[in-house]
Every structure is written in C-alpha cells, then in structure tokens.
Amino acid sequence: MARNSVQFQKELSEAEFERQYGTEQACRDALFRWRWPEGFECPACGERRHSAIKSRQLFQCSACRRQTSLTAGTIFAATKVTLRTWFRAIYHVTQTKQGISSIELGRRLGVTQTTAWTIKHKLGQVMLERDAKRQLTGRVELDDAYLGGERSGGKRGRGSPGKTPFLAAVETTPEGKPVRLKLCRVPSFCSRAVEDFAKRGLERTCEVVSDGLPCFAAVTKAGCRHTVIKTGSGARAARTPAFKWVNTALGNIKAAITGTYRSIAPKHVPRYLAEFQYRFNRRYDLAAMLPRLATAALQAPPMPYRLLKLAEVSA
User: What is the pLDDT of residues 264-283, one digit of tens each?
Assistant: First the structure.
C-alpha cells in the first residue's frame, strides 16, 4: 500500500523548531522579517528611515517621529508573555492534527490555562479571518452536521437543545481528490442560511453535490449548480461514494472535538471550526504552517481578551 503523502511528509520537528526559534531574539528577528520584508516601514507615514530605541524595544520613524513596537497593531499587541511562548503555541496549534486543548497547551507552555486559552483563541481568530473570504470552486460536496451531544430527557434529532448546527463543504478535483474545506456555523438548516453560505463561500461556477435535505436547493439562488443524491440515513448513508470526503472530514472533526475538547461553547464554535479548516487547507506543507500563521497574525488587528471571552463570534 502506498504511503499517504500528507501523513508521512517532512514536518517541522521539535528539534528544528528549537534551532530556528529557540530564543527570544530569534523570534523577534523572524517577526521583523515577516512584518517588514523590505525593511522597517512606519505605519503612520510609510517612511523607511528610522532609529531603534533598544532600551524599550521600539522603532522611531525619522520623518514623523512616531514610535512603534514590533507587535503594535497586530494580534500580538499588548501581550504579557514572551514571543518565544507565542511561537511555541503556534507550533503546537499548527502541528497537531487533532488540535490541542487550552489545558494541555498551558502545560506545554508553562503558563496558566487562562493565558493558554487567550493565546489559542487569538490564533483561532486569525485563522477564521484568514480564510473567511476564500471561496471554493469546481465540484463541492456539501453536508450538514451538529456539534454537541444529546441531553437526557430532551428532544432528540434535529432541533434538540444543546446542539450547534454547521455546514461542511469540500472542494474536490475532477479525479475525486479533496482540495479545500469550508466550515460554517449556521443558525439553523434553512434555505436562507444555505443561500448566505453559498454566496460567501462558493463561487458561482460551483457544482454542488448534496443529499436530499430540502434547504440545500438554495445554493442555486447563489448561482451554483446543484445535484441531489438521496442517501437515506444511518451508517450506509455515510459510506455513499459521492460524499466520501465531506463525511471523512466531519468524522475527523467530531472525533477530535470529542477526544480533545470534550465540549465547546456554542459562541466559540467558529474558531474551533476555523482551526480544523486552516490545518486541512494547508496540510500539504506542515513545515510552512508556522511562518504562514505568524505572518497572518501580524496582519490581523488586536483582539482583547474581553472580546474573545464575551463576544459572539461571527461565522
């Protein structure tokens, strides 16, 4: 049997991570290169001439005299932990296939669970924003799913309390190989929600393949072609060849969430889904995932803890 090219690819080992990012200065140097590839550029006026205030780790523009730090205006802004801790967090979040809980992340980083949770969710917000506007193309397998378990004594099946509905779509090649994944929490499985998802997440040229759930027909309102394959229910339906990759993705996501997180708050579901989506879509180059996420974090606006904890996350 041929080896799976994704599972057996050369990833970023812990030894290599330590060699590249094992010191605070190495992390600062890397962030500087990724934020300003052509050299320092003042965020206020664009001037490149500057001087370094080493005692405060600031850069002062020679034109407008504005002082700025390496992390100002980014997801790292106002951080109380070292950049090396951030880099180690990015390493664990990107290199673990099943995800990592904030408790386990805190143990590995040597910080409190609250600090680890904050770092993890800030990175999740970066992942969410990074892929939000990217659309799937070509043939797309579409399915519905829930996160959350049954509650004893309550209603079962669709509409039961404690469950968070979301849509999963997998773009495939003409040969049937998976390309990219799109996950989106929805208020319910209705035509309006499916139409909104299709308009935001699918190109108009998409050929969507779905089961017989009536609301999936709304993808045509977004300009997509739609093919219905009725599968019934149960394990047999999950083995339908036409939905092989979307069912595989859903199985992996649910198993990871059950095994790693146990349960997650509905308002934070989009960030957890964004993690799986981000890793899946970049699975062919694990070693490059750390610099890619760090670069995206430099381009993301600050996200204070109070917003992470209290605000409802937009899918």
Answer: 888 999 999 999 999 999 99
